[in-house]
From TrEMBL, chain A:
The keyword Transport is annotated on this UniProt entry: yes
Keywords for this protein: Periplasm, Signal, Transport
SUPFAM superfamilies (UniProt xref): Periplasmic binding protein-like II
Signal peptide: 1-18
Name of the protein this chain belongs to: Thiamine transporter substrate binding subunit
Subcellular location: Periplasm
Chloroplast among keywords: no
Species: Pseudooceanicola nanhaiensis
Family: Belongs to the bacterial solute-binding protein 1 family.
InterPro entries noted in UniProt: ThiB (IPR005967), ThiB-like (IPR005948)
From TrEMBL, chain B:
Membrane recorded as keyword: yes
A single GO BP: transmembrane transport
Species whose genome carries this gene: Pseudooceanicola nanhaiensis
Keyword terms, alphabetized: Cell membrane, Membrane, Transmembrane, Transmembrane helix, Transport
Boundaries of every ABC transmembrane type-1 domain copy: 50-254, 320-505
Gene3D superfamilies according to UniProt: MetI-like
Topology of this chain in the membrane: Multi-pass membrane protein
Cellular location(s): Cell membrane
Signal sequence range: none
TM helices/strands, residue ranges: 12-34, 54-75, 87-109, 129-152, 188-213, 233-255, 287-305, 325-346, 353-374, 380-401, 442-464, 484-505
A GO term from the CC aspect: plasma membrane
Protein name: Thiamine/thiamine pyrophosphate ABC transporter permease ThiP
Length: 325, 515
């Protein structure tokens, strides 16, 4: 008898679930891991939407955009979460995204004007090193000294591309010269962030290209205060991560609700200690303890998305020339 | 020797299998080309990548094969305790996921690594691993063991009677080298070189991480760039075609060069060796074995060393992932062995070439193509494990075929006519003639396939299912979340599982195999 009751219960439960509309969100792989923001966000949104939120993951931000492009208008995605400022222009160009209609009081270092994409978190690229290791204060300082560094390849990694644009934005026509100066500091160029950070932790280099928020992980999760991010005189390049809804979605209401939900406390308070980035809207409770120790940046750098694509190709060519010698 | 139509079903299952494999590789490529609306033409930087790729692959193949000959010879003519374990160890480096192996190599050979610590004690300056030499070092680490096993197999296929005859005629090591070993090597080495060349051709993470910068751009990275950076699918597909062309040429060259008669049949027993009893030869063999052993064990020990403290930092999802990976690996092994036997029995040059082709497939293009083909009919995430398995089967096939193929050819050459005259065909021939004589290579091939399938990350990215990740994907996620310690623990688990599976099958094949 009990089995029957359980079976009936299950049947009702599945029927109820089947009736709920499904909101499909494409996101990058690390967003929806058990230690990422995914599970928290899913539970919080499902509580208020009467819907079934489904995450589909694909590599990183660039892989996400590739996937949307491969699928084209036929895509099942309602929302894409995890593109960034380097990809916005290309994403908009596909014509697959619709205006969000979301407005919020963002706490971003820049004024947000894009009407299609909603920022959900942000961070600065920075070189991370050890407290008692070398601490160059600028690219020129780094190039002149003998501190060693591991960086990522801009052709296959998001931070690598960030660094490319950072040097270009800070130095313009002198960028190639700066890269030539850096060439003998660079131990190696890795395909992705993971390899580079791993090499750094193994002691292969004094510095690694990462984020200003990286030390927060070591401090909060590992109680290790030996890792620091270095403030650079030129300023730091900004990365804003965004979400957008697909024009062809069959759940426009839900998708819009979700984009609005992104700017609320329930979403934003999960970001700092799961995604290790700054929330786009500072939650009421403020930032977790430890974030106050991070490098404060007074000169945020960001290439306007529309101009980025053209600059990118030229900058890549300079980078390759300077480092291939 | 003209390929003879075989009594076993005239080899049609093998030809069918080969066509399926070719389809599995070409259809996705076609899908990408079709979606791109035509091929793109590679730019100057891409050709530079092609050149670098060729140089490092040729160097890696030549050095791996050259170093493998003395090691395999030492293993072939010496008997010592733990020899079985040593031979099994030869499978280990090859089956590590790239990121794990690179970290292991760096712990030993890196700027702050063990070797440089030793050099520092001796008052010598640090040696850098980064550069072309680092890439080749890593590839030799990966492929030397495979080369040793393949060449060792060649040695074991020289009938013992030949060595006995040589001993009776008073032939010394030099004569044996000229009359027995050199002809065997001439037959075996081109195939070994072709396989390693093909493996290194698609190297991506190793080449870039240890290569030190954009000088070390490989074709696979150029494909990445075309795909991610510029979304130029046509160019990505074209570069993939270039990779196929290079592997096909290497395969054709190997087929041409490795022609040569086998040694004919013997009593099918292993006979002890009477040559090479000199003290210097014993010392030299010992030195080769020790140096190689240390070279291979070092980075593996580093992986284990780093992993031990991480074992209890691993989240529960690691175990779920381990189960998924085991299931994929066992499934892939079964299917691969079936395909391999069928294709080996078909014994056609073109079947062998197709067997090599998967090594040239760009994971990115293959994955995207499969995605384009499957996405309209099914949800990619629900196919994640099935696709992973299929890809693993195809990717392991070249190795399995390289191992089993020559053995089957040898059996058929030696006993084929006898079996024909007895009208022994079909299942009976397979069961009583072929299988008992290829147990050893079959076990080795099965072990390698299982281990490779545990470690492969390759194509799954586009098909990732958040709930059912494989172990390598989980390791990658852990590193991405700064959780290096847990990742190191999971890497050790992966190493243990892969090597356990490998040793199990390999041992099963060798157990009482000296009939």
């Amino acid at each position: 008898m009990r089995h029957l009751a359980i079976a009936t219960g299950l049947l009702f439960a599945t029927q109820a679930a089947a009736q709920d509309p499904v909101l499909t969100i494409y996101t990058y792989d690390s967003f929806n891991t058990e230690w990422g923001p995914g599970p928290v966000v899913e539970a919080a949104f499902e509580k208020e939407c009467g819907c079934d939120l489904k995450f589909v993951t694909a590599g990183d931000g660039a892989a996400l955009l590739s996937r949307i492009r491969l699928e084209g208008a036929r895509t099942e995605a309602d929302v894409v979460l995890g593109l960034d400022t380097a990809l916005i222009a290309q994403a908009a160009e596909t014509g697959l995204f619709a205006p969000s209609g979301v407005e919020a009081g963002y706490n971003l270092p820049i004024t947000w004007r894009d009407e299609t994409f909603v920022p959900f978190d942000w961070g600065y690229f920075a070189f991370v090193g050890l407290k008692d290791g070398p601490k160059p204060g600028s690219f020129e300082d780094l190039a002149a000294g003998d501190a060693t560094v591991v960086i990522q390849d801009p052709r296959s990694s998001t931070p690598g591309l960030g660094l490319l644009m950072w040097v270009k934005e800070a130095y313009g026509d002198r960028a190639e010269q700066v890269w030539e100066g850096l060439a003998d500091n660079i131990v190696t160029v890795t395909p992705g962030w993971s390899e580079a950070y791993g090499l750094f932790l193994e002691g292969e280099a004094d510095l690694v290209l990462s984020y200003t928020t990286s030390p927060a992980y070591h401090l909060i999760a590992e109680e290790d205060d030996t890792k620091i991010a270095l403030p650079f005189e030129e300023g730091h390049y900004l990365q804003v991560e965004v979400a957008g809804m697909l024009a062809g979605t069959d759940q426009p209401e839900l998708a819009r609700d979700f984009l609005q939900f992104i700017t609320t406390d329930a979403f934003q308070s999960a970001i700092p200690e799961t995604n290790w980035m700054y929330p786009a809207v500072t939650p009421d409770g403020g930032l977790p303890e430890g974030f106050d120790t991070l490098v404060q940046v007074d000169k945020p750098l960001l290439t306007a998305p529309e101009a980025a694509a053209g600059i990118r190709d030229a900058a890549l060519e300079e980078w390759r020339r300077a480092l291939s010698q | 020797m003209a390929p003879r139509a075989l009594a076993i079903g005239r080899g049609w299952p093998g030809r069918l299998a080969a066509l399926c494999v070719a389809g599995f590789l070409l259809a996705p490529l076609g899908a990408v080309l079709w979606r791109a609306g035509g091929a793109g033409w590679p730019g100057a930087a891409d050709w530079a990548a092609v050149r670098f790729t060729l140089v490092q692959a040729v160097l890696s193949a030549a050095i791996s094969a050259a170093l493998a000959v003395p090691v395999a010879r030492a293993l072939a003519r010496r008997r010592f305790r733990l020899r079985g374990a040593y031979v099994a160890l030869m499978g280990a480096p090859f089956i590590l996921p790239v990121i794990v192996a690179v970290m292991g190599l760096v712990v030993v050979f890196g700027r702050g690594g063990w070797i440089n610590d030793l050099l520092g004690l001796a008052g010598l300056g640090p040696v850098s691993i980064y550069g072309l030499h680092g890439v080749v070092l890593a590839h030799v680490f990966f492929n030397l063991p495979l080369a040793v096993r393949l060449i060792l197999q060649g040695w074991q296929e020289i009938p013992g009677e030949r060595f006995r005859l040589a001993a009776q005629l008073g032939a010394g090591p030099a004569e044996i080298r000229r009359l027995l070993e050199w002809p065997m090597l001439r037959r075996v080495l081109p195939g070994v070189c072709a396989v390693i060349f093909a493996i290194c051709l698609t190297s991506f993470a190793v080449a870039l991480t240890l290569g030190g910068g954009p000088r070390s751009t490989t074709v696979e990275l150029a494909i990445y760039q075309a795909f991610r950076f510029e979304f130029d699918l046509g160019r990505a597909a074209m570069l993939s075609v270039i990779q196929f062309a290079m592997v096909t040429l290497a395969g054709l060259a190997a087929l041409r060069l490795s022609r040569g008669e086998g040694f004919g049949t013997g009593f099918d027993r292993v006979v002890p060796r009477w040559d090479a009893r000199g003290r210097w030869l014993r010392l030299a063999d010992g030195a080769w074995l020790v140096v190689t052993g240390v070279f291979l064990l070092g980075p593996l020990a580093a992986v284990a060393w780093r992993g031990l403290p991480g074992l209890d930092a691993m989240p529960a999802s690691v175990w779920t992932a381990a189960r998924a990976s085991l299931a994929v690996a066992l499934g892939a092994t079964g299917v691969t062995m079936g395909l391999t036997l069928a294709m080996a029995l078909a014994r056609r040059g073109w079947v062998e070439l197709i067997g090599l082709a998967p090594l040239a497939a760009s994971p990115l293009v293959l994955g995207s193509g499969l995605f384009l083909l499957l996405n309209p009919v099914a949800n990619p995430a629900s196919l994640a494990l099935a696709v992973t398995m299929a890809v693993n089967v195809v990717m392991a096939l070249p190795f399995a075929l390289r191992i089993v193929g020559p053995a089957v050819a040898g059996v058929e050459a030696d006993y084929g006519r006898l079996a024909d005259s007895l009208a022994m065909r079909g299942a009976a021939r397979l069961r009583w003639l072929v299988l008992p004589r290829i147990r050893r290579p079959l076990g080795f091939a099965a072990g390698l396939t299982a281990a490779l399938s545990m470690g492969d990350l390759g194509v799954i990215a586009l098909f990732a299912d958040p709930e059912r990740a494989t172990l390598p994907l989980t390791i990658f996620r852990l590193i991405g979340a700064y959780r290096m310690e847990a990742a190191a623990g999971a890497s050790l688990l992966l190493l243990a599982l892969s090597f356990g599976l490998f040793a199990l099958f390999d041992h099963g094949g060798r157990w009482r195999a000296d009939t």
